[in-house]
Each structure stands twice: as C-alpha cells, then as structure tokens.
C-alpha cells in the first residue's frame, strides 16, 4: 500500500532516516516508532490552511490518540492547542510544560478532582457535557473564588459513516446536549444564569475516521440553525465554534482519505456560508484532530515467533504483541497493513494471518495478508498504528507495555520506556 516511509537499497523499511531493523535491535519489540516529521507535516496541514485563509483558529491535538510528555512537547512546538479528557492527560500536558491557556478539557463524567485540577491550572476552557457538570463546575469555581471559560458540547443528530462505537454526534449518544430535543437550549439558559462560567461558544464532534466532508457540513448547518435561534431568542453571540476531530486516515488500500487541507477548507467554506446567511459574526474556529495528526506517523515493529499452518485453512503467524498494544482490530474489527521490515518490496508469495500472543482467539492483528516468505525472528512492521495504539494499550495477560521511540532527521530518541515486570507489579501488594 501507499505509505509515507522510505525503503533503503537493501529493501529495509526506514523511518525518519533510520533503518527499522536497527531500531528493533536497539530497543526490542514490540516497539512503537513515530516519524516526527510526519507528525509536524500533519499538524501544519491544519494550522497553515487556517493561516492561509486568515481565519482565527485553534488546532487542538486530541491527546487521547497518543498522550505522552514528548508528544505534548511536539504539539507545543507546532503551536497546537491540546484536548485532554482526564486528569491523567492534563497531568501529562502540565508535566510537558504545555501552555495551560491552550488546553481544553472534555469528558462525559468529569470528576470533582478533574474539574478542580482544570480550574486550579486555569486551563483555556472546559467543554461542558451535561447538566450535572454545570452544577458541579459552578460549585467548584465559586469555592475557588474564580471563573472558567466553557463551551457547550452539543449533539447535532448526525449519523456519520463510521463504526458505531466511534460515532458520537447522534441523538442517542452518551456525549453532550441534544440540539433537537431542546436540552442544548436549556443548558445555554442555565449557563447564562451562571456568571462564573463564561460561555464562549459551542462544540460538536460527529465521530471518528470520517472520509467525507458532508457529515461536517450537515453538522455546521444544524449548529447555525441553533445559533440563529439563540441569537434571536437568547441574545447569544458565539465567539468560538469547535467542530471536533474525526478526519479519516489510511490504514489499508481500502481507505481513501482526503488531504487534511480539504477538511479545513470545507469547514471554513461552510461556516462562511452560514455566517452570511444568518448575519452572524464569523467565530473563531477550533478543531480537535487526533488520529489525523499521529495515526500515519506511527508504526509498530514486532518480532515474529511461532507459525501454525492448518492445511487448506490458513497459516497463522504469531507476533510478540497483539491486543495489548493494538486493541483496535479486536474492538472495531479495524484493518491494518504490514510489511516485512527486511524485505518491503519482496515478492508476496504467502497469504498469512497475523496473530497476537494473548490468550484470546479474537487477538488477531491482520487477517489474510500477502507477505514475502516469513521466517521466525523476522521483524514485521504494521503501518498507521500511531493513534489509539499505545494510548489504548493494556496489561492483559500481564504483558508489559511496549516502548515508544521518536525518530527525526536520522536521530532516534526513546520517549516512553518499555515497562519492566517490576513497573507492572509496582502497585501489587502481598496478602500473606
Ligand atoms: C470530542 C472529541 N474530539 C476529538 C476527537 C478526536 O478524534 P480523531 O482522533 O478521530 O480526530 C474525539 C474522538 O473521537 C472526540 O471524542
Ligand atoms: N479509540 C477510537 C476512536 C475513539 C475516539 C474518541 N472519541 C479508535 O481507535 O478509533
């Protein structure tokens, strides 16, 4: 498949100017490797398109896709803002020295402690998800004798074309206030009576891994119908319109993503159209891409171990990771592509299925992929694992978490250490 990585004269897969076989040797496997130049390129595709069109904007990297100190630092270097969903993601951002005023907090069940931490650090804004949160946050800001900028998260009733579990903009969703049943308007009224919470605007995220712009356009139409009513009936002026993330990337040949610039252009065009239609001042636009910033910049290197051939059925090739470092195939039936790191362009003579090593039949990374002849100890490189791979990693079967390496301009740097067994047992206490 088309992937953004180079292949050297020996046929080895390269990332950021370094041979992936050297990386596997140096750091061990499973190993997440990020091409930092690619992360920067993706970030700039968003940021520069807003700039070119002279639109006031914030591009908030959705850190749930991959949160680490080094990643938050790259986001800062690229002038991104940061979307966090938990105290843990906020703590990571703060440890990384990320500017607090550019941090936005999400979550459908933000705890008192999470909200307190966000208020204490005076982060840029909190995206309010439900009525309970309005009460709780108001109580906290009053106790702390301060104020907070907020957005209201609304669900516009859009059925974007994606997996049900990553669909978020529909009416029957655990996230946000519904626009059509009047709850969003009720939230607006409530916030108008809550002077310590400064309502800056609205937020909407229709889902993830979306390849078309129509869903976003329909959402913007619905948002502006509401904003027009709110202008007329509630005298509300929207300073910030946050349109969420969800821009699709290529995992396999089947995926045909749009250039990232096209999403931004489509959003701006539609907002322009709607602001003219309703004579509403053009708001600052915020977006929250996660996957599209880090997804295709990351690969996972595995070492191949056992092989099992069932004549006339299939050949299973097992790797030293699986659903512990990439839950997406098991969770969403997600598809991936891979190559042998030592022989990227070799003749693909074998059809095999790549199994993880967890005690779970569903722990399969790739079904029916064509690869050159494989031998034990070969290194397999799986593409597009940069988003929701490490961040969704788990300890099933007590496999320690993999390491993460950043590579840029021919220099590799360990940014998350491989977990040791001691690390994993750190919180275990005995019961003798
Ligand atoms: C509110 C919100 N913003 C941003 C994102 C990031 O989405 P993606 O990684 O698809 O860009 C998500 C995840 O779907 C989300 O729920
Ligand atoms: N974790 C999901 C996406 C959910 C994004 C957050 N709302 C994925 O891997 O595709």
TrEMBL record:
One of its GO terms (biological process) is lysine biosynthetic process via diaminopimelate. The keyword Lyase applies. Residues 32-386 form the Orn/DAP/Arg decarboxylase 2 C-terminal domain. It is an enzyme of class 4 (lyase). Its EC number is 4.1.1.20. Residues 38-294 form the Orn/DAP/Arg decarboxylase 2 N-terminal domain. Pathway: Amino-acid biosynthesis; L-lysine biosynthesis via DAP pathway; L-lysine from DL-2,6-diaminopimelate: step 1/1. Substrate binds at residues 291, 328, 332, 360, 388. It comes from the Bacteria. GO terms for molecular function: diaminopimelate decarboxylase activity; pyridoxal phosphate binding. Homodimer. This is Diaminopimelate decarboxylase. The gene is lysA.
């Amino acid at each position: 498949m088309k992937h953004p990585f180079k292949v050297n004269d020996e046929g080895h897969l390269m990332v950021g100017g370094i041979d992936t076989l050297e990386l596997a040797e140096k750091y061990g496997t499973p190993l997440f490797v990020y091409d930092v130049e690619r992360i920067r390129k993706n970030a700039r595709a968003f940021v520069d398109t807003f700039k070119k069109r002279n639109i006031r904007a914030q591009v908030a990297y959705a850190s749930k896709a991959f949160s680490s100190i080094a990643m938050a630092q790259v986001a800062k270097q690229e002038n991104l803002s940061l979307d966090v969903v938990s105290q843990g993601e906020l703590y990571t951002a703060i440890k990384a020295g990320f500017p607090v005023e550019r941090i936005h907090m999400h979550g459908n069940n933000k705890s008192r402690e999470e909200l307190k931490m966000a208020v204490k650090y005076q982060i840029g804004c909190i995206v309010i998800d439900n009525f309970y949160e309005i009460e709780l946050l108001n109580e906290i800001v009053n106790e702390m004798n301060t104020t907070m900028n907020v957005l209201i998260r609304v669900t516009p009733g859009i059925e974007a074309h994606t997996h049900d579990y990553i669909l978020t903009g529909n009416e029957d969703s655990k996230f946000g206030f519904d626009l059509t049943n009047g709850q969003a308007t009720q939230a607006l009224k409530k916030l108008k009576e809550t002077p310590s919470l400064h309502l800056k605007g609205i937020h909407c995220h229709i889902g993830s891994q979306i390849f078309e712009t129509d869903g976003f356009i329909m959402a913007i139409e619905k948002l502006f119908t509401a904003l027009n009513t709110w202008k007329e009936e509630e005298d509300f002026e929207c300073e910030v319109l946050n349109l969420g993330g969800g821009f699709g990337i290529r995992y396999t040949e089947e995926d045909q993503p749009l250039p990232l610039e096209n999403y931004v252009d489509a959003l701006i065009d539609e907002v322009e159209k709607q602001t003219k239609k309703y004579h509403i001042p053009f708001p600052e636009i915020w977006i929250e891409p996660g996957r599209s910033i880090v997804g295709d910049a990351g690969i996972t290197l595995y070492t191949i171990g056992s092989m099992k051939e069932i004549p006339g059925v299939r050949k299973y090739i097992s790797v030293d990771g699986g659903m512990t470092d990439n839950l997406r195939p098991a969770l969403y039936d997600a598809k991936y592509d891979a190559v042998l790191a030592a022989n990227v362009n070799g003749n693909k003579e074998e059809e095999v299925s790549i199994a993880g090593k967890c005690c779970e039949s569903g722990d399969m990374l790739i079904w029916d992929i064509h690869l050159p002849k494989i031998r034990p100890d070969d290194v397999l490189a799986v593409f597009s694992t940069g988003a929701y791979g490490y961040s969704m990693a788990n300890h099933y079967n007590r496999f320690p978490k993999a390491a993460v390496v950043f590579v840029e301009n021919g220099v590799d740097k360990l940014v998350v250490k491989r977990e040791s067994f001691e690390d994993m047992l750190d919180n275990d206490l005995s019961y003798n």
